[in-house]
Amino acid sequence: MSSNNAAVVEIAQTASKFTSSIVLHSDNKYIDVKSILGLFTTLVSNKSYELHVHGPDAEEATKAVAEAFAKNGLSVTVATD
Fold first, then answer.
1. What's the angle, vertex CA 11, arms to CA 50 and CA 45, rounded to 5?
2. In this structure, what CATH number is given to the domain that contains residue 13?
3. What's the pLDDT tens digit per position in 3-61?
4. Inter-axis angle of helices 58-71 and 5-16, to 10 degrees?
5. How far apart (Å, rounded) are the C-alpha atoms in residues 4 and 19?
6. What is the pTM of this model?
7. Through-space distance between the first and last CA atoms of the chain, rounded to whole angstroms
8. Residue 18 belongs to what domain range?
């Protein structure tokens, strides 16, 4: 199943508001959440993803990006590393 275009754009735009590194981990792949192309080729609604956020505004970025995923019906867990 292909990803929802609006969801991909919204997630990437949300991530781009932050300076932190925001990366999705899925199937041994790491995808920059700020990359619309990376998300287009990766996101499918029936998969679960792990979110890695590192940087000065990581707390706010994690919350905002996780909310964008949830709002679009995508499953994501936040890595605690």
1. 60
2. 3.30.1340.10
3. 578 899 999 999 999 999 999 998 888 999 999 998 888 877 667 789 999 999 999 99
4. 170
5. 25
6. 0.86
7. 30
8. 5-78
Domain count, the chain: 1
User: What would the two tokens of residue 28 be?
Assistant: 């041994």
Q: Could you tell me if 28 and 72 are in contact, meaning their C-beta atoms sit under 8 angstroms apart? A: no
Taking the C-alpha atoms of residue 59 and residue 80, their distance in angstroms, rounded to an integer, is 12
d(CA 50, CA 23): 8
Rounded CA Rg of the chain:
11
> What secondary structure does DSSP assign to the chain, as a single string?
-PPPHHHHHHHHHHHHT-SSEEEEEETTEEEETT-HHHHHTT--TT-EEEEEEESTTHHHHHHHHHHHHHHTT-EEEE---
What lies within 8 Å, CB to CB, of 80 at 6+ separation is: none
pLDDT at 2 over 70: no
